[in-house]
Amino acid sequence: MSDAQALPRWADVVLIPLINISLALAVSMLIILAIGESPTEAISVMINGALGYDEAIGYTLYYTTNFIFTGLAVAMAFHANLFNIGGEGQAYIGGLGVGLLMLALSDVLPFGLLLPLGMLAAMAFGAAWAFLPGWLQAYRGSHIVITTIMFNFIASALMVYLMVHVLIAPGSMAPESVQFNEAAFLPFLHEWLNAIGFEVAESPLNLSFIIALVCLVAVWIYIWHTRWGYEMRCFGQNEKAAAYAGINGKKVILVTMCLSGALAGLVGINEIQGVQHRLLLNFTAGYGFTGIAVSLMGRNHPVGIFFASLLFGMLYQGGAELAFELPNITRELVVAIQGLIILFSGALTYMSKPWLEALFRRLPKRDRNTAEGAAHG
Amino acid sequence: MGDLMEILILTLDATLRVSAPLIFCALAGLVSERSGVIDISLEGKLLAGAFVSATAAAWWGSPWLALALAIVVTIMLSLVHGLACITYRGNQVVSGVAINILVAGLTVVLGHAWFQQGGSTPPLADEARFMPLDWPLAETLSGVPVLGALYSELLSGHNLLVYVAWLTVPVIAWLLYKTRFGLRLRAVGENPQAVDTAGISVSFLRYRALIINGVLTGMAGTYLAIAQNAAFSRDMSAGQGYIALAAMIFGKWKPWPTLGAALLFGMLDAISIRLQGVAVPGIGEIPVQLIQALPYILTVVLLAGFIGKAIAPAADGIPYTKER
Question: Among B219, B206, B201, which Cα is nearest to B46's?
């Protein structure tokens, strides 16, 4: 494209994403108007519900934790030019891994062993569920988007079968397993804060949040500061050039998909080991799909993903509060907003680019004129 | 013997009923993908069509108006997809995902605000729905052994939209293989440069494919909400859009094989309902979940090239940039 240089970098990195999010939020406001509620009231209820008091902040950060994991999972795959829609299924199976391990070992092992083992199980199961689509893409040429979609449904069917027929607690009506031994529970952050003297209300926010922050840094190091990350980005930019440079594309696909699945699987640590303390159905609640929005909005960069996760955490928690305060609105408004954000910042990313380019082409000219004027004067 | 015959006919009958939306959606996906636009958003459009038709039928009581409005809305969603994929050359999968998620949320939000029933629409009276059509003499002929049962149970007594779904297959096949438009459509999905060089607009062709896609998904949604059921309920498409996508791939992007795949997947659905809690002699009880997951598993196996090879149109998913 001849105009590729017309936009300064900051406009591409900051301005365009901001415009896209604003467009998505503007349409969301129109939806709120259409169902007869006041957008300004909705916004204030949401912000207060997400950040207004300590319990709300706890919930917001608890949702944020899930979105960091799934957002990083999608971003990791994007860097190798792979679109992993299977985060939902990988998170589900990752949770299954944690659950099976805790059901087997939480009575005999101490927490110090259960935490690393649980993380390993979550990552291994999530990775395994992503490995198969990766292998099929690398060696059999099937399209990763389709296979990961299919694997989401297969995961869901598998979980229903296991929960209804195999893992259900004896005598239970609901398809839920028995509770793990307390040794397995991750510490809640409000317990820690209370212990050191800060009085904080209860919330599901737990140690996984710290693990998620560590993952953000680890993924940043992996993508930009290791040989493997370099090979992955090369492959993602240009498969043929990467092959000429001696990079094994098949290996890159397999490793990237496994890492992506492992990150998604860590949702299981937050949900199963951290909050629910037992295995149950549908604990992923669409977090895997939200990861797509998070990754697109955060431009596949850990810093962006952190802020996007925070925004979605606020939306989820604020949305719950909104549904409670304004009975005409349901929580699914957040799902609709999520769809709009994916549409505007993922699919219509460069809708505003021609306009901005036209604008920027005018600006420097005026600068030049004033500079010339100054020189003459 | 007679018993077995009856079970067979009832299962086939159920197959026809559940496969109608799959046929519509799979063909919708087929037209779009043969023109080079990947359409993951079948699920979303199916759900949107269902919601709009049920809402319109609840408000105005006319199934035909409901059908028309559902088609208008699904065409509009198709055009949004086109705007993102054709005009702005965005990522087609991302755009599809966006439409699916947007519709999943929006239908519940609007349904809740308008009807206050947790995202469902109120149950519809028969006049506001498409009802089964009984063919002439179905009642009298039902006594005739085998043929009579076939006629009265299997052929007669379906919904108008089921027959339309069947009719759509030869129509789409004719459109793709026997018309000038179809030739160009297939060409634009394989080699858009060639079509462009011939002086034919790639974008306009692809937009027309998406409009056909919208019409078909609108009919699918209408069938789901006001023919097969009598109201909209949240997430009522329940993954059928994705099964249709699988059927399209299973049918190797060709109309008649796609019909076969849609019927196969519909039959699996019908069988899974019938097999609930039944022990099959020699095998024991087959988990319903396994049968429900079979369409997905079969598609994965097919895509992996273990049973034949499914090859997508060459330009599928690649935005076309006109050289300047």
Answer: B219
Task: Mark yes or no for CB contact B90/A346 under 8 Å.
Answer: yes
Summarised one tens digit per residue, pLDDT across range B30-65 is: 999 999 999 999 999 999 999 999 999 999 988 999
Q: Which residues fall within 8 angstroms of residue B34, CB to CB, at 6 or more apart?
A: B176, B185, B186, B189, B209, B253, B313
Residue A51 located in a structural domain: no
The pLDDT tens digits for B221-248 are: 999 999 888 899 988 988 899 989 989 9
Number of H helices, E strands in chain B: 13, 4
**What is this structure's pTM?**
0.88
Instruction: Identify whether A125 is part of a domain.
Output: yes
Range of the domain at A106: 64-283
Q: Contacts of residue B92 in chain A, CB cutoff 8 Å? A: 347
Query: Given an 8 Å threshold on Cβ–Cβ distance, is B112 in contact with A328?
Result: yes
ipTM of the complex: 0.87
- Chain B closest CA to A146's CA: distance in Å? 8
Residue A97 maps to a domain: yes
Chosen from A335, A349, A355, A356 to mutate, greatest number of chain B CBs within 10 A: A335
The residue assigned the tokens 């304004």 is A326
> Cβ of A339 and B101 within 8 Å?
yes
